[in-house]
Write a structure and sequence with these properties.
By secondary structure, this protein is of the alpha+beta class. 33% of the residues lie in helices and 32% in strands. Belongs to the ERGIC family.
């Protein structure tokens, strides 16, 4: 009884077989079929190889949300060289609440404003990357993934006459709009803000030509090249004002190399010569007015999952196999039909009378009945 039940179950399973086996004696191999199979296998191998590279690649996903962190401090990373002596200039920050931020984290280092050949090459490379970033925005994704970032070559300060000043370091400010500026004279506290001792510096010493090697906000991370990195401005006038209007965007960066919170920014700039007689008023210096955006950008590096890669791979193999089989069948059918009609004489141009045409039709009909 159990054996009969097993036999019935096996018989039922065999009837449900969706892949019946064809005996080899009924299978005929042809040269055309072998050629099509060779082409199909080649296409499968090429597309599977390319699909593997797609599987290995990653892409950046951008998401936006409201920034709810208002109580933390904002870090400003500075590395600027000004073509004036260090004793003539001062740098500090004044935020929107008229709060003066101590600039103890900044260092003043006498240097040469002119760059060495190695530094000039690094500076030109950085400027070229900035130009390409303005045109090809996808280049930033590559920089995110590879975490490309390197410090500039060290400056050679062996010369005795150092007429420029490198201001570098970092500051912690309130997370509100503010103004970071470099102007004439050291800053001193004031009940209504602050002031600079500019009266002790001669106007002939003014020269606010400058080079920004690095300016960023938040944690300094590899893979982020700020818009002002590599900026160089040379002024022919002694009284000149340079203004940068910066919009800071909080950013969460999560890649396979880096995972941290930092800030990106966009900037617009303008500069003009100060001439009180011509109506162009102002204070000579470098002014960077920044504001913080309320939206946060989340940048995440994503990868194709393994199951999706396997599904796509099966689709490639099955699709090529089915498509080449259909094409081979259709071409074979058309060839058979054309050859059969040529043998029957359908396309032969024969001049026959009505009786001969009747005989030909009758003979063809009798042949078809057979």
């Amino acid at each position: 009884m159990r054996r009969l039940t097993k036999k019935k179950a096996l018989t039922l399973v065999k009837e449900l077989d969706a892949f019946p086996k064809v005996p080899e004696s009924y299978v005929e191999s042809t040269a055309s079929g072998g050629t099509v199979s060779l082409i199909a296998f080649s296409l499968m191998a090429i597309l599977a190889f390319l699909e593997f590279f797609v599987y290995r690649d990653t892409w950046m996903k951008y998401e936006y949300e409201v920034d709810k962190d208002f109580g933390s401090k904002l870090r400003i990373n500075v590395d600027i060289t000004v073509a004036m002596r260090c004793q003539y200039i001062g740098a500090d920050v004044l935020d929107l609440a008229e709060t003066m931020v101590a600039s103890d984290g900044l260092k003043y280092e006498p240097v040469n404003f002119e760059l060495s050949p190695q530094q000039r090459l690094w500076h030109m490379t950085l400027q070229h990357i900035q130009e390409r970033l303005k045109v090809e925005h996808s280049l930033q994704d590559l920089i995110f993934k590879t975490a490309i970032k390197g410090p500039p070559p060290p400056q050679d300060d062996s010369s005795t006459s150092l007429h420029a000043c490198r201001i570098h370091g970092h500051l912690y400010v309130n997370k509100v709009a503010g103004n970071f500026h470099i102007t004439v004279g050291k800053s001193i506290p004031h009940p209504r803000g602050h002031a600079h001792l500019a009266a002790l510096v001669s106007h002939d010493s003014y020269n606010f030509s400058h080079r920004i090697d690095h300016l960023s906000f938040g944690e300094d991370l590899p893979g982020i090249i700020s818009p002002l990195d590599g900026t160089e401005k040379v002024s022919a006038d002694s009284n000149h004002i340079f203004q940068y209007f910066i919009t800071i965007v909080p950013t969460k960066l999560n890649t396979y190399r880096v995972s941290a919170e930092t800030h990106q920014y966009s900037v617009t700039e303008q500069d003009r010569a100060i001439n009180h007689a011509a109506g162009s008023h102002g204070v000579s210096g470098i002014f960077m007015k920044y504001d913080i955006n309320s939206l946060m950008v989340k940048v995440t590096e994503q990868h194709m999952p393994l199951w999706q890669f396997l599904v796509r791979l099966c689709g490639i193999i099955g699709g090529i196999f089915s498509t080449t089989g259909m094409i081979h069948g259709i071409v074979g059918f058309l060839v058979d039909v054309i050859c059969c009609r040529l043998k029957m004489g359908v396309y032969r141009q024969l001049k026959v009378n009505q009786g001969q045409m009747y005989k030909i039709i009758c003979s063809q009909c009798s042949w078809l009945q057979l």
